[in-house]
Amino acid sequence: MSNQVVIGVLAYGLTINVLAYAVMVLDKANARNGTRRIPEATLLNLAFLGGSIGTVIAQQTMRHKTRKEPFRSKLVGILVLQIVVLITVTVALIVAGSTEALWKRLTS
Fold first, then answer.
1. Is residue 99's pLDDT more than 80?
2. Closest Cα to residue 43, out of 63, 23, 62?
3. Rounded CA separation 59/39 (Å)
4. Of 32, 44, 51, 62, which sits most exposed with the smallest number of CB within 10 A?
């Protein structure tokens, strides 16, 4: 995998998590001020698109939506799904790299 791909993936992850955190902070401020709230679907979509860590950090540090169901359960489900996907992709890349190295040794 090229360095540009790795940098791009890391930049996306950082950006989406900062955005998810900021949107949770904004929703908490709106809740305190009695102004229009951000829909839970928007918060969960940001988490699903890769911002689950930022959402969880905001949830815990701001004490926002920590007891709200089904939001809490859906967020945990998204986080578990992302962890499973991350582990699967990591293992696949390791195996592919090992297989490629083995193939090069066998064919050279």
1. no
2. 23
3. 15
4. 32
Q: Is the peptide bond before 70 cis (omega within 30 degrees of 0)?
A: yes
At position 2, the amino acid (one-letter code) is S
Encoded tokens for 45: 């979509």
The full set of domain ranges for the chain reads 3-81
Could you tell me the pTM of the whole model? 0.84
Who's near 79: CB < 8 A, 6+ residues apart?
Answer: 47, 52, 53, 56
**Helix (DSSP H) and strand (DSSP E) numbers for the chain:** 4, 0
3-state secondary structure of 64: coil
Residue 42 contacts residue 27 (beta carbons within 8 Å): no
The whole-angstrom separation of Cα 31 and Cα 37 is 6
Taking only the tens place, the pLDDT of each residue in 1-55 is 678 888 999 999 999 999 999 999 999 999 999 999 999 999 999 999 999 999 9
